[in-house]
Amino acid sequence: MKARAAITVAAAGLIFFAGYAALFIAPDEATMHEIQRVFYFHISLWTGMYTALGLAFVGNVAWLVTRQPKWDWLGVSAVEVGVVCCTGGLITGVLWGKPAWGIWWTWDARLTTCFILWLLYISYLILRGLIEEPPRRATLSAVFGIFAFLDAPLVYVSNRLWRTQHPAPVLFGGPDAGLDPRMVRVMLFCMVTVVIVTLIVLVDRYRLEGMRHELDELQLAAEAREFRLNSAPFKESL
Amino acid sequence: MTLARAAAIILTKELRLEFRARELLTITVVFALVIVVLFSFAFDPTAGESRRYGPGLLWIAFLFAGSLMLNPSFAREQSNQTLDALRMAPISPFAILAGKMLANLMFLGVAELILVPVFAVLYNISLAGIVGRLALVLLLGTVGLVVTGTVFSAVASHARMRELLLPLLLLPLLAPLLIAAVEATAALFAEQPSLDRAWLTLLAGFDIVFLTASWLLSDYLLEE
Amino acid sequence: MRNFHFLLAAWMAVWAVFFAYELSIASRTAKLRADIERLKRQLRDG
């Protein structure tokens, strides 16, 4: 309990400082001024998302190979957290686009990739909701998860290639556009913060899944006992 | 029994099943035609516009019709639990999968053979001189659709709402394939038709990645 | 500060999403813990 409280306080501190850094420490950007600071959150969220989805892939493969339930728990937790990060990434993308370019959305390569991945992993969660038996649910969603992960680079490449043929305003010039070292430091700090917070939330979700599993086992034990108790009279009469 | 022979037997079974009723093929073709017709209300099919929107329309029609058509692939095994019987046969799970993929490829191929000329007529696009190259693009795209669709048919067959689930799982995943196929087709429909190497590579890459993944994961896909 | 409200909205939206998610996990965890304790007691005493 103490460790958990300490972690929460530390996370809150990180969030506060990251926000402060992004809003006040980072130097002003020449063309877009204030709204550029969304950049720090936006890229960080994508970092969190890719971390989570990478962990999901690990969970999916590990479940298929070892059949230990904990890997399935990792799979679903990581995907859920990844979807949350992705949602944040999309929201910040929109909130950057409007003030910077006057449009809510451009189908630029990175945003479109993000959107498609969002849909793909939401489908993963929907799939899980529609299969009842835990082992089968774990196996089939693991297969789908692996396919989705393999698709992600293809989505990015195809969108990138499409964008070079149909140019449009690029929302995010890319972190290599001659950045001030202070910006780089703030960027890294925000990225680390978001990844840490993502992992904390992931562990909580993982524990929740473990408890659900424990509940299922207990319910099975309770039902088995009910059955034994109710069939006792029959045994006696024999 | 070799993989090829086993897959061929499954393929024959699938074909025989389908040709008894022929309903799947009919419905697929008609559904795709419906999409093609409905799209005509979305824009005025003059030559320029057809060349711009035609490829997208064609592939969306194939993707939607295909994702509906791929459902029965594994769904029909559920009713009499025939999949258990297949599993007990001395063939690898991938043979079952491959046989079904080949059957679906043929069904969709026949549907495309009918649809593409109709589409060309309805939208005033000349196919002269590009038939061979168009066939290549169609083949690469359809293989990707069929490989992933058959796998997801197996996945969805164990879930509730499988008719809605399959398109939901399949269509986001197929986004790269759709982009590549549409762009490659558009390059062929252009005034100077050309075969776009980059998009074809992407299509081929997509097919190889997911065929390999299907092969590696086939055991888990078809297990008890 | 031009466009400040967009920036603020973005910052708040991001953390709101995270906190909402974390809160939902926490409440589900509490509920599950209660159910588990109940079942454990049932199995022990019943």
Describe the structure using short key phrases.
heterotrimer, B: 224 residues, mainly alpha, C: 46 residues, 91% helix, 0% strand
Q: Could you walk me through the main structural features you see in this protein, from its secondary elements to its overall organization?
A:
The complex is a heterotrimer of chains A (238), B (224) and C (46). Chain A has 6 helices and no strands. Chain A has helices spanning 2-25, 38-66, 69-101, 109-129, 134-165, 181-237. Chain B has 224 residues and is mainly alpha-helical. Chain B is 81% helix and 0% strand. Chain B is built from 10 helices and no strands. Chain B has helices at residues 3-21, 23-39, 47-69, 72-79, 82-88, 93-122, 131-156, 162-173, 175-189, 197-221. In chain B, helix 1 (3-21) crosses helix 6. The longest helix of chain B has 30 residues, at 93-122. Chain B starts with a helix and ends with a helix. Chain C is rod-shaped and about 65 Å long. Chain C is an all-alpha fold. Chains in contact: A-B, A-C. The interface between A and C is medium-sized, with 38 and 29 residues.
Strand content of chain C: under 5%
The best one-word shape of chain A is: elongated
Global structural class of chain A? mainly alpha
Distance linking N and C termini of chain C:
66 Å
**Helix share, percent of chain A:** over 70%
Question: Whole-number average pLDDT of chain A?
Answer: 85
Oligomer: heterotrimer
Supply the helix-strand structural class of chain C.
mainly alpha
Number of helices of chain A: 6
Would you kindly provide a brief summary of this structure?
Helix content of chain A is 82%, strand content 0%.
Write the layout of secondary structure elements.
The complex is a heterotrimer of chains A (238), B (224) and C (46).
Chain A: H1 2-25, H2 38-66, H3 69-101, H4 109-129, H5 134-165, H6 181-237
Chain B: H1 3-21, H2 23-39, H3 47-69, H4 72-79, H5 82-88, H6 93-122, H7 131-156, H8 162-173, H9 175-189, H10 197-221
Helix pairs in contact in B: 1-6, 2-3, 2-6, 3-6, 3-7, 3-8, 3-9, 4-7, 6-7, 7-8, 7-9, 7-10, 9-10
Chain C: H1 4-45
